[in-house]
Specification:
homodimer; alpha/beta
Amino acid sequence: VTADLLVVGTGLIGTSVGLALRGQYDVVLDDPDAEAVGVAVARGAGRPWDGGEPFRHCLVAAPPSAVAGVLSGLMRQGATYSHVASVQRTVQADLATAGVPLADVCGSHPMAGKELSGPAAAAGGLFVGRPWVLCPSAETSAGALAAVREVAERCGAEPVVLTAEQHDAAVALVSHLPQVAASAVAAVLDSSGRPLQLAGPGLQDTTRIAASDPVLWVELLRQNAAAVAPLVRQLAEELDVVAGALDELAITPAADPAPVESLLRRGGAGRRRVPRKRGELDRDFVVVPVSVTDEPGQLAGVLVSAAQAGVNVEDVRVEHLPGRPTGVIELLVHPSSREHARAALSQAGWDVVGG
Amino acid sequence: VTADLLVVGTGLIGTSVGLALRGQYDVVLDDPDAEAVGVAVARGAGRPWDGGEPFRHCLVAAPPSAVAGVLSGLMRQGATYSHVASVQRTVQADLATAGVPLADVCGSHPMAGKELSGPAAAAGGLFVGRPWVLCPSAETSAGALAAVREVAERCGAEPVVLTAEQHDAAVALVSHLPQVAASAVAAVLDSSGRPLQLAGPGLQDTTRIAASDPVLWVELLRQNAAAVAPLVRQLAEELDVVAGALDELAITPAADPAPVESLLRRGGAGRRRVPRKRGELDRDFVVVPVSVTDEPGQLAGVLVSAAQAGVNVEDVRVEHLPGRPTGVIELLVHPSSREHARAALSQAGWDVVGG
């Protein structure tokens, strides 16, 4: 029997692909780490590959530097091949050097991930609504492009076709630059040695991706160094100018704050160009906070009361208060529903908090 | 009648304090912007102040540079005074210069906020579980400290007593540095002029606070310039070193990546020192995604099914897919509940997605 898809590499991305395709594709899984294959199989991402069974398409979900080696060992066992490398130019060059038949290969990169890794962190919904970049080379056949496009679409992603150069320039800006920036802010925190108990969501969000795997990221930054270096240098220069202006303001409070103000204003303009987060609050939603005990069913109870009162809850957040037996459930509703929601929930016996 | 509290400044913080104290304190509100007072009153944050009515305690929620002027105009109308300035040393100095009786004043700073401002964005739950720094000066009386501590506690915050110097050094690190960093990353995005359609949560989180009010932030950074400048310079130097290493790696891929790896590793260590976000996923929780139509009651329905099956839902996220009539509800459960939750929800007729 010919499998629909061989996934080589059962980490976060490979296992998530297998999970997303469950019930759609006959997926076989391979990884040099047998334990990782075991976890992915147990999660339901596919069957273990026996090393000989033929396959229609192969997706290599391995680090960029490993892709060419893996693919050249598999050629002639399948029809078409793709990979999910976060950097594309170097992999295209490696494939050409390795003598892989380039017509059968189409690079790709799903723009989804987490700061966590490994098959245990995988999720079948990881790619839903996210861009999945397809990077055909000049040699890539229509069949190879169509095969990886089908995988992307069946995972719920939105395919976007770019050249390898376009892709690498784009990820340098939207992914590699923020990674370096987050790591640098967190490195300053680390070297300060000071307590951080006053930290709030601003610092938490700004440094979240600093938790990413350093081994993986050294490789990504090395592979895309030419595109990332000028952006990091520009960031350093922006900060150096602001540091100089702040030095002057520290001595002379009446000094010119124009460099600081310029950075903040241009930053605001740049932020407005960042696509909205999936599920991000509409600016027009307002919060109805409800204090609850930390027991099963409280969340459902609050939402049932809201539904019974005809309140459309746009989003909900649960805040567990550290070290307390209670939490706050925040319902997000349209402003026109706020007072009705508050009244209905209070009447149903819920502890609606503050204003 | 003597009001319990006069709040001067009905922006985000002042209005949120009024909302949080609703039913606990008789709150009167004042602001040079009559429209802002009107919105705060309409939201239920308090009554308008007539300018003559006496008050027990006054909280000035105005920009730091305005605090001393506001307070010196109010002295002798109330018993004790506080403010919520994000920078404390300069305000203490301003108060001394203005000849305000320092025994009656205790500075404070609730560590809560948003990238949004104004009374419409206020929320009574804003301070729940958050630190609220109390900064008594050497002259502050026990009564003035107790009065602002009571306000903080009644708002649900956790009071933390620090000197003005300790406070300003701490916020330089946990608030002002990440603001400058986020603005600088977003300024690089802006100057690139390139499309950002591949941006994901990493860039979104790293730049979220770049949307903050530039006028407010120029003032905060000016007031705390002495504490912020060396941190911004250190950040610039970290990035300059990495830019240099990336330049070398771009020319010679076999060059030494140690500076890049060091940054990533120290960044990981710094990130581990950041307190966890309220409601942040426990690392041990796993996601059960359910696809639903975008209609009222779906969220409640899913949670009722989960509760009926005895599944303890730790957290929930709602993802509206742009341009689609459906969304994904992600339930976060303990790994031991995953398969039971999936089976129970499927049996109840819900569309449980992928793995």
